[in-house]
Amino acid sequence: MSDAKQVEWLKGGMWHETQAHLIGKQPKSSAALLDLVLQAEVDRKDIDRKRVEHERAKKLEA
Q1: Where on the tree of life does the source sit, at the highest rank (predicted)?
Q2: What distance in Å separates the CA atoms of residue 27 and residue 18, rounded to the nearest whole number?
């Protein structure tokens, strides 16, 4: 299975979310690939958290 297919499988078909993290990086092992996928998930959750905080701040201002 290619690295791209593994990422797609690991992310449940969410390849577009990890694609930016993989540009220029060629994981040499499945552990390195998993690290990239997990970092992408952490980044996504951080973005979601910041979005929620921003929406709450907007509601408080209104």
Answers
A1: Eukaryota
A2: 13
